[in-house]
Amino acid sequence: MFRLRVNSALFLAPLLFLLSPGNDAQECRSGMYPPAGPTFGGDVPWFTVSLDEPPAGRWSAVVAARKAELLTMIQAIKELANSLVPSGELVKLVDRVFPLIVDTLPYPFNEEIKGIADVSSVPLGEIVLFNIFYEIFTVCTSVVAEDLKGNLYHSRNLDFGFLMGWDRQNKSWTITEKLKPLVVNVDFQRNNQTVFKSTSFAGYVGMLTGIRPNIFTLTINERFNFDGGYVGILEWILGNRDAMWVSFLARSVLENSTSYEEAKKQLTVTEVLAPAYFILGGNQSGQGCVITRTRTLALDVWEIELKLGRWYVLETNYDHWDEPFFLDDRRTPAMTCMNRTTQANISFKTLYDVLSTKPILNKLTTYTTLMDVSTGRLESYLRDCPSPCSPCRWR
């Protein structure tokens, strides 16, 4: 057994920063696209993954190109774990127990994870941990919008790393910064033809952001609930394996579903390990929705409804029928900016402007992705948010 001894400064410093007085909320940004300036962290490189290759070797080129960055990120996670449990027992537990999980994971994800561990020289248990981080914690903003011509656009900020190591000097989240060099765009092909595209992290085999060209687009946002992903992980370890890992389900849908309606059905009815919001866009007018999920069922499917004047659906990390947490209201400024943009002006440019407005853009934002289903176009950009900047509206 090990004792959990929390380093209070690790948590108090960022919390005090979030709660301290400040005023970095912005008017809606404009002229941010094409990306440039201090909020642009760089372009995201493209890789090809062949689904015809044996799973163990599919990610070799991606991981080899980002091996150093992956090792740096894993080391940062270890240091964070050791700050919580100074004896190092938490890391030892991961290295001892998590390799036992990999063979219980569905094919081909289990074999892909093993291959990544081999290429990267990172212990298998630590690669498993990296691949189930959605079930632990991530936050996001996603929006699907329809223009006046019936074209569907889907965009998102992926935010990750809250309470995962605070760099006082740079006023940034440690794991967030370590993840940015791992962001990659991947073209998944079969028979040398694109099946789907995704923005992901090198070493991560599930999907959080993706497009099946001409058919649908998909993003996942975290949904906070007491019956969270840690419960699902524990049940999985104890032998209850009826549910799907959330990011594995998203990848399966992107790879196998051949219509918006089929994708919506799978995301609505499949039992999952963690609560989630699935944000889905299609290729026809009115095809855009937010599916609010518990682990066992869909509580709500909130759809674009032009007759009601709802030409977009927007999700952060709170049920759309409830008020967001007062310290994390990204929804209100995002909707304000969308409404000011108007349906007549929706484009990659204006969506990027919305997602560049604080606090929608914040210290946790790793990347912004823009997708146009009709052209199959996916663009992703690394993001920075110079201080003062935080997930909270007032700091």
UniProtKB/TrEMBL annotation:
Catalytic activity: an N-acylsphing-4-enine + H2O = sphing-4-enine + a fatty acid
EC number: 3.5.1.23
Pfam family, one: CBAH
Domain Choloylglycine hydrolase/NAAA C-terminal: residue ranges: 140-377
Domain of life: Eukaryota
Keyword entries, A-Z: Disulfide bond, Glycoprotein, Hydrolase, Lipid metabolism, Lysosome, Secreted, Signal, Sphingolipid metabolism
PANTHER family membership: ACID AMIDASE, ACID CERAMIDASE
Protein name, UniProt field: Acid ceramidase
Organism expressing this protein natively: Denticeps clupeoides (denticle herring)
